[in-house]
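Our platform keeps sequence and structure together, in a single record for each protein. Because each token names a local backbone shape, the row as a whole describes the fold. One such record is reproduced below, unchanged from the form in which we store it:
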Amino acid sequence: MPKADLAWTPDLTQATGPLYLALADAIASDLASGALPPGARLPPQRRLAQALGVDFTTISRAYAEAARRGLVEGRVGQGTFARGGAEPPAAAPVDLTMNLPPHFSDPALTSRMWDEAARLRSGGLDLLLRYQDPAGALADREAATTWLAPVLPGLYPDRLLVVPGAQSALFALTSLLLRPGEAVAVERLTFPGYRAAAAQAGVRLIDLAMDAEGLTPEAFEAACRAEAPRLLYCTPTLQNPTTATMSLARRQAIVEIGRRHGVTILEDDAYGRLLAEPLPPLAALAPDITWHVASLAKCLSPGLRIAYLAAPSARAAALARGALRATVSMASPLSAAIASRWINGGCAQAVLEAIRSETHARRALAGELDAHAAPAPDGFHLWLTLPPGWSRGEFAARMTGSGIGVVGSDAFHVGVPPPPEAVRIGLGGPISRPRLAAALQRIGDLLAAAPALSSSVV
């Protein structure tokens, strides 16, 4: 249907990001400019979808988003109408709580990702109507060796398992390697998902002091002498939440202590590939005592729910296979096949580079926040140490009141010493750069003000 047949049509030629958000933004813009008068009836959803050449669900989501912002209202049996009145529409909240890779703007690469996935249709029904080995198909484990080759060269498929996300691997391995009541050493500020996995497995957490490079060798040595943990869980690169990255010397020291005290290492390498020049993982320095979990969620796609688990040996991999069968059965064959196709065809590397580029651009938006944040230009989360006078609870509450979500340090804290006055800020996800910049500016303004002076309570 020609656009001229519609009373109002949006201009989406300059749209970036999800189309439904672009359409909702267009409604807001045209209301502000007068191109869409208050009370005007918007085109029926199916007619507008046909005119714009998009899916009906895109229009439906756009109208729902516009209604949530207070831009339009639906009237039963009549349609959707632009709202009038002097009250401006409420701004959409900005969620900086999730630690997601940023959405990049590259239509050609996005199309390539979907095109590669669509080519799997030639494989018939096996990917849809068949169970597979809990360790993953051989072709997918071979693709995993290709993906991990830059950091773990010489890895063979018999030591690899394809798992449905890092979280399932962390729980399965903790249950496999420890009995209830036994101890695992962790960074004092650690990934909440591992805290949950440890609690489910019934094991104790021993907190290790940290510095700018992550857990300290002195704390690990002292814990080994006093508590004799059987397992160390850590994230050596762009640690979550602190963004700390261990130097090579620090990694060597941790490996030496673990080997000397007979401690197995569980290495969470969710962020390692984000570095343009990755440091050797602990699994490269001590493959015989290290389980290496390499998630694709942060460097490629959270939606695939695929991670690669490198075991210390083929025998250890066989034991993990049984643990995975008992807990999660298997990774999705379809998701694993998509990841393999992206890796083997070079699409995965292109996506990784696009994520790196967008990460650097967003990290540059932090500006004056750098004075309060650890230096980590390759990471898409900030660890913000609050200035004197601010408590993490008050700051997070003030942010929530401004429509901005951040995460206080309590979510990550383990041990007796009180959590630091700090918050984690996620720079990724679908939020656009302009909205992110505005949110970061608001955070900077709040940091610059004394807590008492920034309050509007009367």
Observations:
- The chain has 15 helices and 16 strands.
